[in-house]
Amino acid sequence: MTNTPSPRDRDNSEQDQFLTILSREDALARFEAALFPRAVPGEQRPLADALGCALAEDVTAPIDVPPFDRSNVDGFAVRSADLASAGEASPARVMLNDEVIACGTAPTRPVLSGTATPIATGGPVPRGADAVVMVEHTQPAGHRAIDIRRAASPGQFVSYAGSDIARGEALLRAGTIIGSREIGILAACGIADVAVARRPRVAIMSTGDELVQPGHALRPAAIYDTNGAIVTAAITENGGEAKFLGAVADDEAQLESAMREALATSDMLVLSGGTSKGAGDVSHRIISRLGKPGIIAHGVALKPGKPLCLAVCDRKPVIILPGFPTSAMFTFHDMIVPVLRRMAGLPPRSDAKVNARVPVRIASELGRTEFVMVSLVEGADGLIAYPTGKGSGAITSFAQADGFLRIDVLADQMPAGSEAEVTLFTPHVRVPDLVIVGSHCTGLDLVTAPLSHAGLTVRSIAVGSLGGLSAAKRGECDFAPIHLFDEKTGTYNTPYLTEGLELVPGWRRMQGIVFRKGDQRFEGLNAEGAVRAALADPACIMVNRNQGAGTRILIDRLLGGARPDGYWNQPRSHNAVAAAVAQQRADWGMTIAPVAHASNLGFIPFAEEHYDFALVKARKQRPAVQAFLDALASKVGRAALAHAGFRPA
Amino acid sequence: MTNTPSPRDRDNSEQDQFLTILSREDALARFEAALFPRAVPGEQRPLADALGCALAEDVTAPIDVPPFDRSNVDGFAVRSADLASAGEASPARVMLNDEVIACGTAPTRPVLSGTATPIATGGPVPRGADAVVMVEHTQPAGHRAIDIRRAASPGQFVSYAGSDIARGEALLRAGTIIGSREIGILAACGIADVAVARRPRVAIMSTGDELVQPGHALRPAAIYDTNGAIVTAAITENGGEAKFLGAVADDEAQLESAMREALATSDMLVLSGGTSKGAGDVSHRIISRLGKPGIIAHGVALKPGKPLCLAVCDRKPVIILPGFPTSAMFTFHDMIVPVLRRMAGLPPRSDAKVNARVPVRIASELGRTEFVMVSLVEGADGLIAYPTGKGSGAITSFAQADGFLRIDVLADQMPAGSEAEVTLFTPHVRVPDLVIVGSHCTGLDLVTAPLSHAGLTVRSIAVGSLGGLSAAKRGECDFAPIHLFDEKTGTYNTPYLTEGLELVPGWRRMQGIVFRKGDQRFEGLNAEGAVRAALADPACIMVNRNQGAGTRILIDRLLGGARPDGYWNQPRSHNAVAAAVAQQRADWGMTIAPVAHASNLGFIPFAEEHYDFALVKARKQRPAVQAFLDALASKVGRAALAHAGFRPA
């Protein structure tokens, strides 16, 4: 529910009631102060349904475990004093009592001096006995007696009542999360129901007319609702009972009614999408009518996540998350999870942290605490943290990162080479077995698939050919996929290699002109002809590629100095070029054949690009590198590449 | 389903078909060889129900995300070339196109040179435009035009189609566990259903007539079924769909029919209880009839866990876990979880490991790989691993341990002071805030309760007074609760303190004679009289305490050299004494008043025991120690102690 600005609205924006941007710490402190302390409501649950819940109360052991003095072996319950002089050469003979204590059998006869009672593992030691001898250390002596060839110390092979758990001892404390081990302790005491913290009911709503739910067809200009699903899942992961109510249209009356209804049956309401400060942003107006104290913070000096809105309406938290997925998820984890877990009676999440070096300078905005999502790879002397770099509008920035680092509110950058503390999203860093940094290609996914299926972890960080080459020179990756054209020699890639790097041939990608099928300006022409035709039509708009891309060099060569409309539209990927043409934002551009075909575009082949690998020689013998080289050379790998439209070198 | 041995059976045991004890590694290798490779069956699930499941197939991006070139700000879509010379002093004036691109609105008009189109965050960049300028950097110039005061670089504030996720790129690999982040990635691509590995259906059965399910009353000689609940929960935690079928009686026909039925509808069957090698052990006979190849290993050179039985019947694993809870859980995690996770399409569990010093010698059995459950505490120079020490018959050995260390099959001990690698049961070590090592008392739970509720973690390791004192001298705990009587001075505790320790007075515990209410031999007597009466009756059996216990000194004093029946029955706790008397295994003994009252026994007070704390001076200023001292001195703490029958010092 972002809204369309118009310059006419700008003067009114001064009247906006939420001008104050709070610091992250201040916002969280005010939010928590408005919500806590509060009692965590409990509910009784059968043990089997309590897995993952938090205990609402301390649990004290109601019985001794074991409940009686128990035999730990199969053997005979005896009086140790009777065996004081027993040995291999001088066995002690004892008479057998006329009962057998199986597991679950209560003894009925005492063990008198000079007697023994057969007893199974787990059986209760009878009155009079003070030790158990193992059956292996005895010998039958007729049907009514045995010889015992070893002395027994008092208490031998006996587990005394209460030695595992003593009646009255504190077993588990309130707030403990019930895992299988806790279930074991409770079951051992005979506890079948426990008081657990009731999961807070959290209603989730997406707002925005542009949102389409996954599984439905995407309209032009629409996008899939990502935040609804991810927030719902993250609430479940953090102890809430999530109820996703779908996307609600941008209509104030309709939205208010939906919010009131959701809040009436929930303990918390989370909206995502409606955080624009534009005049049409109705969510916060509605919130101010929902209950006291209302909005606590609208705008937090936090990046990503500035437009976060925190409110409390009649003791219930109401949150509007930013619309961008990474902003939404980051603020959710940073600001909402602590509150949710506390409401759920759960302990704070314990985040694992590691130290890592930042290989590149990271710019930051003064005055906002900035959190940078990073991927971790193993360098020569420790971990290296690569910014994922796609920005807060990208879901993958958050979802494919290993963790994040923090840049202080008063810093305007983190210099290259800095040591930073990285908070991990999952408890373990699993450093990938194979690290690929450079230009990405869907062909690469085909080659690495068998490695993934064999349990090797592959990390591919897309930073372009030149960025990959730098990483390879610094030894931060196993190899860099590159497709760099050297105009001087007219060759690809080899001229760019330096000491310590070796070229591994990859595959050829046919580049050519794309256009919408049926566009009569281009049908039947070759590349040079197509560009001539485009330049001849003033209504014809092109889409270019970014400076530095190999494809850009080819385009400039074909244009021969012309700068037609669209020349400055310079996306960074083959896919973006195809999308621009398919969606009629441009009429022609240059991309690779597989991408053109996937978009069902017309394609005029022009020149092959060499997509090769700059291999870090020092890492060549690593098993994952060898596995990659094997997969690249394998018949099945080459066949998969060819099938996808690439030509293996 | 352990069974009662009799010496008569011993000769037949040689005919047992499962005499070969395999090494742990050999057993696991044979088990896995009989089960794998196998296909992981998949099933289609809605995204919302896929949380925690493992992906069954690779997922490739079906669309570009974003699907179009998207504006990242509220502002105006422009041609960057139009603004080449724009600046604060020389704004560029452009005419506004007659449309407004909201989020979700497909543009219908191109941005021609000299024009701009208002666009909201998330809106698709129209044809012709190659950049977006923020509304803040513009000024209205009448109703149909704006002035722009900054140049714009091509692509400014534009996220190109496919820049987040490119169509055709490998999104997630088979085997990935679906968390909220993966759900976000899938939703962003519009994927509403995913193929996930179907959770293996695992049937769990307990065997043993002695077992009572939690929630039901415990019969004499019976125990609660711990393994059923804990195994069921652990299967859920490791990707299985667990179905607990309850306890099945020890009857061969009935058990066979139950096992056949369970196996027919499950992918795996886990039994616990029936691993005795006694003649009555029917489970393995049944297994040999259930399918090929049948039993793979019966008996593994593993401690705890030797009696583990591994079988495969017609491609389905059938496992009989040892009956002792810690043996059952340890073998389950060590030998069964890897197989279960592989069947569930999950990656191997990644266990975190830490190094720690072992403060005491640990004996081990030559010829068996021994795993020792340990609790971790922070020492002066690193972590210290205390063996939990209650043995495999105790559920708490496993459930309250932080992890385990391994003693090699060829070692007969681990010497005190060894450095050992500890595998953690949970990813993080949370070193406790307060460490108490020594003699346990339920009064201690009352004093530490407020600390736990304030979020401080308290670890109490019960090793007796003398063991606690040693730990305190080594600086391994904050304090040691002790109740040590010095016969020379006739005083408690103080004479035992050494340099670096300080006595903190705790409370007094009244010790006295316990007997069953109504036992006319003891009613109305004082302690001396009661002991005289007991000694006068040859049928009267006592229960003693272990050598070294303060209570033992009192008993010996009262007995004056007599050694009546039961003298050598020497349990190590107050609770065991009460249980022996309550269950008629003994007629009298000495325990403390609160324990006697909890067991509803008659109690004759004799002498107060001083339960005090040997505080490690160097750790006195720690916040948790201060919090403990505060709680001990607090009115509410003293009242709780008094209410429970203790007398605060």
TrEMBL record, chains A, B:
Keywords: Magnesium, Metal-binding, Molybdenum, Molybdenum cofactor biosynthesis, Transferase. Its EC number is 2.10.1.1. It catalyses: adenylyl-molybdopterin + molybdate = Mo-molybdopterin + AMP + H(+). Its cofactor is Mg(2+). It comes from the Bacteria. GO terms for biological process: Mo-molybdopterin cofactor biosynthetic process. Pathway: Cofactor biosynthesis; molybdopterin biosynthesis. One of its GO terms (molecular function) is molybdopterin molybdotransferase activity. NCBIfam families: Glp_gephyrin (NF045515), molyb_syn (TIGR00177), PRK14498.1 (NF011068). This is Molybdopterin molybdenumtransferase. It comes from Bradyrhizobium australiense.
